[in-house]
Specification:
single chain; eight-stranded parallel beta sheet; alpha/beta; Pectate Lyase C-like
């Protein structure tokens, strides 16, 4: 009786397995079943469906029994390449099945088929690292790099397990194939990073498919238009977060996507379905204050607005506007990004811990405490700029040179008050990048949160920066400082300083800075503060209609912001830009010999609704040019300097250190 019941139980379990979907069967953890004769019978089907090229077709319930006629038809198709794909988990699922049955029943045929599938994946990869939906290539949108339904992510997950030798797959390839898998994985990640979409210069997320040549978002089916995807982007980010020892580029991509997910999440709304006989017959969105966040499947590339499409390919901005067939038969919303939001803080904490560990911090002891090299690839003394600063001599008697090799350093860097006389010199302005994305709302520590956002914070006197890009990539989310200088005798030359609102902050009563040959870009008040600063031969670039400067010059300071021989340029959309407005009423800002683009407003200056500022501030120009220089139309309380008045605006008069003979001409001896 006991034996009979066990037999009946075994039949029942097996029947339950075969009643599941093919996807569920491949993903289940049931060693006993994979050791069974029934699993072996299914494996025969898996081998039959595989084409000689190594791939499988999609949307097939492979576990279903085959007639002899069907077997013969599949054998006849062995040399055909038609239909081989990774779409809808094809090929990847079959490889997973083969790995699981090989572990329990190690037949050489299963290993050979698995390795043929891996070879198929490696051959299908484009040179730029992406994968098409079908290989060999099938005409139409199928040639696009396919993130749709997580196709490319699944491939990369397989390659990651192989290259890392995790043992997840019971079939371990040769060292030669492992090396190929590592190269393919790295190329795939590079493709992901390069295809991450920039919206107004800010990294966001990905489309479901990208053009295989330009890497730009591309159209697939009529109702799958170029867009930002709330669904596919989630799995991409989770993959990037799973990379051990991620590069600064990977960290930057994850951080940017996290900010985007937070920005575009939809709250207070849920999808309500009516189901009859297991089929969705009605779908609508209803208001629900307690509903968890959801994300739209498709969002506009320029402003993240959710949209929907019928088979006519015409965008609609409400789900109710499209027909029942597409409305009920397609997933227009997703909750998948919730996993990114849930794991992000833990991921950041892990990164922070790793960066602080000795193995991450120092690759080798510096040969010279006064000449330090930072390189992301480990070829220097440190891989982190901040670590190099932390290990520099305090209050040194001579200058400390920190040379930074090309790369994107995704870190907040602070030059503490005791690390004086540091020169931070990049290998090249365009390729040596210090990048972070803190902003007021992210810091969220009260009304002074702005001052905690800088990517690079300088608190030490006699600091020099050259050949660098210093950027805050938070986007147009409010105050977000790229460079904050709260120190005296600071020189910044040949640098890009990039941000949006509040890009550059220079402060400290009596403190002086010199910016030479720099490109400084932003939106609102993007050069602000109370220090005395000379901008010499710089490009001051407005990205929107706003204000170039917001000085808070102390009443005791003779000079504030002085722009000499600068060019005032702008994006096309910036057509109405003020030269400045007073953050504090004694603001001082002067432009001399500057070329002003047509985006500068004819009145030039704004009083920030502070009538007192019209008497207390000092706003002036001298000998400027360009369509934006309209002295006859300037506000009456600004000044056009006479030649005799302009003579006092020399570097020596403005920047000299009258308290020290040694530092008298610090601005000219910074090299």
């Amino acid at each position: 009786m006991v034996l009979f019941l066990s037999f009946i139980s075994g039949i029942s379990v097996q029947a339950q397995v075969l009643d599941q979907s093919w996807k569920s069967i491949t993903e289940m953890d049931n060693d006993q079943w994979f050791a069974s004769a029934e699993a072996k019978a299914v494996a025969e089907n898996v081998l039959l469906y595989q084409r000689n090229i190594g791939g499988w077709p999609k949307n097939i319930q492979i576990q279903k029994p085959l007639s002899q006629t069907q077997r013969n038809e599949l054998l006849a198709l062995k040399n055909s390449t038609e239909g081989c794909t990774t779409d809808n988990s094809a090929t990847c699922q079959e490889m997973l099945f083969l790995s699981k049955i090989y572990k329990q029943q190690p037949e050489e045929r299963y290993k050979k088929a698995f390795l043929a599938g891996l070879d198929y994946l490696l051959k299908a990869q484009y040179d730029n690292g992406g994968w098409p939906q079908f290989y060999p290539l099938k005409k139409g949108y199928y040639t696009h790099i396919t993130y749709n339904d997580d196709s490319m992510v699944r491939i990369l997950e397989i390659l990651k397990e192989i290259k890392d030798k995790t043992g997840f797959y019971s079939i371990q390839p040769s060292e030669e194939i492992v090396a190929k898998a590592k190269i393919a994985f790295d190329k795939g990640i590079d493709c992901i990073l390069k295809s991450q979409y920039k919206q107004n210069g800010v990294l966001t997320a990905w489309c479901a498919q990208h053009d295989e040549n330009t890497l730009l978002p591309a159209k697939a089916r009529a109702y799958e238009l170029p867009s930002l995807s709330g669904k596919e982007s989630a799995k991409i980010v989770l993959l990037l977060m799973d990379i051990e020892n991620p590069s600064q580029e990977v960290i930057k991509a994850v951080d940017a996507a996290f900010v985007w997910f937070e920005k575009v999440k939809i709250t207070g709304l849920k999808e309500e379905r009516t189901i009859k006989n297991g089929k969705i017959v009605a779908k609508k969105m209803v208001v629900d204050a307690d509903a968890p966040p959801i994300w739209a499947r498709f969002m506009e590339l320029d402003d993240n607005r959710p949209f929907f499409c019928d088979r006519d390919g015409i965008k609609k901005y409400s789900l109710t506007e499209i027909g029942e067939e597409r409305r009920n038969g397609y997933s227009w919303y997703t909750n998948e990004p919730k996993e990114v939001l849930k794991k992000y803080d833990k991921w950041k904490k892990k990164l922070s811990t790793e960066l602080k560990s000795p193995s991450k911090k120092v690759t080798k002891a510096p040969k010279d405490d006064y000449s330090i090299i930072v390189a992301l690839d480990g070829s220097g003394d440190y891989t982190s700029i901040q670590d190099a600063v932390y290990n520099s001599p305090s209050f040194p008697y001579k200058r400390v040179l920190i040379t930074v090799k090309n790369g994107t350093y995704h870190e907040k860097v602070r030059i503490p008050e005791w690390n004086t006389k540091i020169s931070l010199i990049g290998e090249s302005k365009e390729k040596t990048i210090i990048s972070y994305d803190d902003y007021f709302g992210k810091i969220n520590l009260g009304r002074n949160s702005t001052f905690m956002t800088p990517t690079l914070l300088v608190e030490a006197n006699d600091f020099v920066a050259s050949n660098l890009t210093i950027e805050n990539t938070a986007g147009q989310v409010g105050q977000a400082i790229a460079l904050s200088v709260v120190a005296d005798r600071v020189v910044v030359s040949n640098c890009n300083i990039l941000g949006n609102q509040d890009t550059l902050y220079t402060s400290g009563e009596g403190f002086k800075s010199y910016f030479k040959d720099c490109f400084i870009a932003g939106t609102v008040d993007f050069i602000f503060g109370g220090a005395t600063v000379v901008f010499d031969n710089c490009d001051i670039h407005a990205k929107s209609n706003a204000y170039l400067t917001a000085a808070s010059t102390p009443e005791s300071s003779e000079y504030g912001f002085v722009f000499m021989n600068c060019k005032l340029t702008a994006d096309e959309k910036a057509t109405e830009v003020y030269l400045g407005r007073p953050w504090r009423i004694h603001a001082k800002t002067v432009f001399l010999n500057c070329e002003m683009g047509s985006h500068i407003r004819k009145e030039g200056w704004n009083n920030w609704s502070k009538a007192d500022a019209e008497k207390a501030s000092f706003y002036a120009e001298y000998n400027c040019s360009g369509p934006g220089f309209q002295p006859e139309n300037r506000v009456s309380w600004s000044h056009q300097l006479k030649k005799s008045e302009a003579k006092k605006y020399t570097l020596e008069n403005i920047l000299k250190d009258s308290n020290s003979k040694e530092n008298l001409d610090w601005y000219s001896n910074f090299k």
